[in-house]
Amino acid sequence: MFNRTTLLILVAALAAGLGLWAAQVMFGPQRAASAPAPVEGPAVDPATMKTVRLFPQLRAVPDFALEQSDGTALSAKELQGRWTIVFFGFTHCPDICPTTLSELAQVQKLWLDLDPALRPQVLFVSVDPERDTPAKTGDYAAYFNPDTLAATLPEPALQAFANSLGMVYMKVPTEAGDYTMDHSTALVLLDPRGRQAGIVRPPFVPADIAADLIALSKATP
Question: Is the peptide bond before 154 cis (omega within 30 degrees of 0)?
Fold first, then answer.
């Protein structure tokens, strides 16, 4: 026979079980329905891309306000409407940055026939705000192509912006007592709504990058 204590334990367990069942019935479907649906990527078959690696799901980018060469702020809102290639570098870069900007200038020439409203854009962001003022950053980028957007940002906001796009950089002292900057060399791709849609890794082939961006731009509603 059950004693009084055992009976109370069984009653409590039964009540807990009924409570859990009731919670699942009442709240389970509602909680599932309120969960945000995955954000799908562009309406383009990733297999058709020549060099762009599209993400399965778009990645939200926290709001930002970069400082452009003309003194105005460049926010995510200003980039919306067109696909954007973002490249992080610095003006004292001896090889990678000038080479990449030269290759991107070739890409920009290849999509000139696109409708200006759809034409992709290139954004160069300096990771060396100590030496690269917004004006200097703009002059440097314009040397390769005057249509290139250019901006930078004081620390630590610059680091936060780069990290939000999965890019990294760091200051490296040199034997001459100066310093250089180590930085990610990949290109970040933002969709027309300012979300990170993919990435392009070196080596860069301008014709392939242009073909991918043209296809993405034409497929954008």
Answer: no
Map residue 181 onto helix, strand or coil.
strand
In tens, the pLDDT along 84-103 reads 999 999 999 999 999 999 99
Q: For strands 179-183 and 187-190, give the pairing.
A: unpaired
The Cα 128–Cα 58 span in angstroms is 28
- The residue type found at 98 is P
Q: 120 to each of 22, 75, 198, 209, how far by Cα in Å? A: 53, 17, 14, 11
Question: Model's pTM, two decimal places?
Answer: 0.81
Cα 78 from Cα 178, distance rounded (Å): 36
140-198, pLDDT tens digit by residue? 999 999 999 999 999 999 999 999 999 999 999 999 999 999 999 999 999 999 999 99
Q: Is the distance from CB of 118 to CB of 144 less than 8 angstroms? A: no
